[in-house]
Amino acid sequence: MLSRRNTTTQLWSIEDAVGRGDIGSALRWYDIALRTKPQMSDLLYPVLKQASRDPLIREALVRRLEGKPPWLNSYVRYAAAQKDDPQSTVALFMGLQARGVTIPGSAQTSIINLLLDAGNTDQAWRYYAAVRPGAIRTRARDPQFTALLEAPSQFDWITLNDNSIGASIERTRDGGTFEFSAPASIGGPVLQQVQLLPPGTYRLAGHSSGIAQDARALPYWTLTCRSDGRELGRVVVPNSAQAGGVFAGPLQVSSNCPVQTLTLFAQASDAIGGTSGQINRVVLSAPTQGAR
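^ thats the sequence. predicted structure below, dont judge the formating
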């Protein structure tokens, strides 16, 4: 008799259970195989991901993963990275979360971004709202940069760094702040968050510190249409010595632009020290009364 640790035994047993329509037995042998030989994930994960499109198999898989086998996080990350049928992956994740299984933040982010990039905006938001309780669709999220996420999704603040421009969200005594810096003659986007704003007139307001530039080198916020890059509005951030560092301005969302991107740009400066500063707060408020 062959041992249960023998690969041939495991694969034959999986095939036999599948042939008999015994989902529970098939998953039990998947579990045995992946516990004894983790490298078999290369062979078994693609088959399991494809099979889990079936609601009955997916529910049985949730029950198996509820026991938190050693391959749980490995499979979850694999499933989240697959671009085909992210909807079934969301259903799997929601089932696991309902049973108290924690989904790694990187896997949550991966599936949210996949759905958003595939045009499944509403489903991307529903899952995002499920993993970020209190998130509001009609305004920018995390106005004081307190989340400090290790794996932010496109619905969260994303810092944009390259070899020249530095950008980071830092913890402060009052919560958090966004900091940026760029050498002389270098500029570009430094902070970004995807929005799902209904048509209407919005107000962007916030507070800065450490910004001191000529008028042509001041940073600015822009709201663009994600589908075609159309600019929907721009709000310049004045020098922090003016108005106590407060900035504000209107943004107009048109009816033919359901998904937008809010971006902070650092403009190139001729100053020897380049450009730098902090954004301590930014609020994108709901439409003004009467906006449609």
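The mean pLDDT is 91.
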